[in-house]
Design goal:
198 residues, seven-stranded mixed beta sheet, Rossmann fold, 31% strand
């Protein structure tokens, strides 16, 4: 991942639009975390914690992992300001080197599109999950209007399900839950949520 882009963005990352989108995503993710009070969550590619810090009441602990130090600084300030005791941050890029971590739930929210080798990252996340653990992915449906050398133009449900099942995930559920204007590189787009079990 091109860190510097995200380093530059960090201080002004939480725009109105991003916060609105985060609310829509949260509405979809929260029900997936019912009965998770004793569980640990890793938010991979957490950015400033727009999503996961709003989930801290549903889980035992949250680890925000990002490859942008600046994004994590913003997240850390939020954790301190809110007096949160069950959230911490980790500067890491699992596409380079995956630390020895274990979690019951891993969340990737609008992150997969930035990772060139989808299969490799899914394998890393599979390894991190405890048996019976859950992987939640929120991302964009395939969008023919988008072309960018560093970003996937979304994913089809078929390719996503195949990639997950190839890695070993089961009980794969997936649905499109939101259509929005200009939400994906200034194009209208739809988002999906997928939930799968190790």
């Amino acid at each position: 991942m091109e860190n510097n882009v995200f380093e530059e963005l960090a201080k002004r990352y939480d725009t109105e639009e991003r916060m609105e989108l985060a609310k829509i995503i949260l509405k979809e993710v929260r029900p997936e975390l019912q009965n998770s009070q004793s569980k640990s969550l890793i938010d991979y590619g957490s950015g400033t914690g727009l999503i996961s810090l709003e989930l801290s009441d549903l889980v035992d602990s949250i680890l925000l992992v990002d490859s942008s130090q600046q994004m994590l600084e913003v997240a850390k300030a939020k954790i301190t300001n809110k007096g949160m005791t069950n959230a911490r941050v980790l500067y890491s890029d699992f596409t380079q080197d995956t630390p020895e971590l274990k979690a019951d739930i891993v969340l990737l929210s609008l992150v997969l599109l930035h990772i060139p080798d989808t299969k490799k990252i899914l394998q890393e996340l599979y390894t991190i999950l405890n048996d019976g653990g859950k992987l939640l992915i929120v991302d964009f449906d395939i969008n023919e209007n988008i072309y960018h050398p560093k970003v996937h133009n979304g994913f089809t449900h078929e390719e996503m399900k195949k990639a997950l099942s190839d890695v070993g995930f089961t009980s794969i559920e997936m649905k499109t839950f939101h259509h929005g204007n200009r939400i994906f590189m200034k194009q209208d787009a739809s988002m999906f949520i997928s939930s799968s079990i190790k």
